[in-house]
Specification:
This is F-box domain-containing protein. The protein contains 19 helices and 15 strands. Among the domains are: about 60 residues; about 170 residues, no CATH class. The longest helix has 18 residues.
Length: about 550
């Protein structure tokens, strides 16, 4: 006669292992407190904790050296912290733990080759987990808003400490929060309990402050020691994200980069629709670990030079320790398509990571904005006599550094420095700065970003698709009338000057069919913009 076990503790250890492996991490930890038997089966059992972790998360590569129990306990702690329901309940003393753990989780994200994916990255359990974690809109946002930029906003002061003399521990926490915000991707444009404070003017002030462009930081988003200045990258992301939202609302090629939390911000996230066969790749592309060759979208923003000069040089005797006040000034935005090709691969230099090569590239760029812009149709090439131009390399801190110079009429004109967010072959792309190739101390300079285009994608058609998508959404009209500006502030839109308070009145007074006409005009305008090159120092 076969008798059933009278209690779960009578089950064989192998069966209990399989039972625990299907529980969520918190339940496994709770089970360890039920009995001594369960505790002995669970605590210190790396194989069990690995199974519990992998049921919820991506399989990291490589898996050697991972402390599975500690990694899973960190997930439990992270979930507990994010259960806070009000801003007052958020334990900001946990910022370093939260940021480091989330960054580590994202760095271990992997993907499938499913075609049912966002362009910004194939499905990832780690990304989905982080998206759910930050989806509450309270706890996650609090940890994303601890950089110096948000402290400047919270201070309510026009003039605020720039951070050059900030103690190391405070600066480290600010940098971690900024890095987490950049990896999150979706820039926080409105801040405060009522979301009435705009972050953009503070970010503009930081990005265009010429004091932030020095020989020591290579005029780029770097600290003097060669590490990434994530607070500067955060400001760049806010400036570009706001300008893209205002100019191309609903544009698919932009939303998948600036409107998908954590999307594509990890190594190897860019997945071509069709993987080329080895015999279709030349030797250089096979050896290139960064995935350089191909088509890249690029965004460049810049101030009118009179605004740039007035902001930087008419206010005298501003101490280096003091940040410039928020800047309310309009910017021009240019969209570029770059076609680049690897031309040479060299061993790493003394300032590079010893395990990663230096890849040189050449190519061409053309504008998608204005057919009369000669700058946007310049050659983009690797400068043979200058080491740091037209190259992709890995820093000692394992950050991917892009440098380039644009050539117009045979002369080098604009240069740029950037960091690839998420690592090599990330779909999130590169954020950085452009500037005068000779580092003119009077500028100009500004922010830029570029990210890889899908296989065989027609950029002009992609822009038109974005317009068609938003055309039927009445909220889009707010973008045309400037509803993302400060209340009561005058904003210019295609020659119109309107007040936010008058938007409803303006819309209510439209004759029948006038709304459709406005949208059709805007669709034709974007179609025209998509039909040819544009203005500005856009291909640097």
């Amino acid at each position: 006669m076969v008798t059933s076990a009278s209690h779960i503790t009578d089950l064989p250890a192998e069966v209990l292992h399989n039972v625990f492996a299907w529980l969520d991490p918190a339940s496994v930890l709770t089970s360890a407190r039920v009995s001594r038997l369960f505790r002995d089966l669970i605590v210190g059992n790396g194989t069990l904790w690995r199974d519990v972790y992998l049921l919820k998360m991506d399989t990291p590569a490589p898996v050697e050296g991972i402390e599975w129990e500690q990694e899973t306990l960190d997930l439990i702690k992270l979930d507990t912290i994010f259960h806070s329901t009000t801003t007052q309940d958020v334990d900001l003393s946990q910022l370093e733990f939260v940021a480091n753990t989330c960054i580590r989780i994202l760095s271990r994200a992997s993907h499938t080759n499913s075609l049912e994916n966002l362009y910004s990255g194939s499905p990832s359990a780690n990304v989905a987990y982080l998206q759910s974690l930050f989806g509450d809109g309270i706890t996650g946002m609090a940890f994303l808003q601890q950089s110096g930029l948000f402290e400047h906003i919270r201070s309510g002061k026009t003039w605020y400490g720039r951070g050059v003399n900030t103690p190391g521990e405070i600066r480290r926490k600010r940098q971690l929060s900024a890095k987490l915000h950049v990896l999150y991707g979706q820039p926080i444009l409105n801040y405060g309990r009522t979301r009435s404070c705009k972050t953009h003017p503070y970010a503009v002030s930081r990005v265009y402050d010429i004091r932030g462009f020095t020989e020591e930081n290579r005029w780029g988003p770097w600290n003097n020691d060669g590490t990434v200045d994530w607070e500067k990258v955060e400001a760049i992301n806010i400036v570009l994200g706001k300008n893209v939202k205002g100019r191309w609302p609903g544009g698919k090629i932009f939303d998948e980069v600036w409107d998908c939390p954590f999307g594509g911000a990890y190594r190897g996230a860019f997945v071509p629709k069709t993987e080329p066969d080895d015999d279709e790749l030349d030797d250089l592309d096979k050896r290139d670990p960064y995935g350089v060759s191909g088509s890249w979208y690029r965004i460049v923003c810049f101030l009118d030079y009179s605004d740039f000069f007035h902001f930087n040089f008419t206010t005298r005797n501003v101490p280096d320790s003091v940040a410039m006040p928020p800047l309310h000034a309009g910017e021009a935005t240019r969209l570029i398509i770059m076609e680049v090709k690897v031309v040479r691969i060299e061993p790493p230099g003394p300032d590079d990571h010893p395990s990663w090569p230096v890849v040189h590239y050449e190519g061409e760029s053309r504008s998608l904005d204005d057919i009369f812009d000669d700058n946007a149709n310049s050659d983009l090439r690797a400068e043979l006599s200058l080491v740091n131009k037209g190259t992709v390399r890995m820093t000692k801190g394992l950050d991917v550094r892009w440098t380039s110079v644009s050539v117009f009429d045979g002369q080098e004109r604009w240069a740029s420095e950037g960091v690839q967010v998420g690592g090599p072959k990330s779909a999130r792309g590169v954020l950085g700065t452009w500037f005068d190739r000779d580092h003119d101390p009077h500028g100009p300079a500004g922010p830029t970003a570029f990210w890889k285009a899908r296989d065989q994608e027609d950029p002009r058609r992609a822009l038109r698709e974005g317009v068609r998508i938003v055309r039927g959404d009445p909220s889009w009209v707010g973008h045309l009338l400037g509803d993302d500006e400060d209340e009561g502030e005058e904003v210019g839109v295609e020659g119109m000057m309107v007040f936010e308070d008058d938007i409803e009145e303006d819309l209510g007074s439209m004759e029948e069919g006038e709304m459709d006409g406005l949208l059709e005009d805007q669709e034709r305008e974007v179609a025209d913009l998509a039909g040819g090159p544009g203005n500005g120092p856009s291909s640097s």
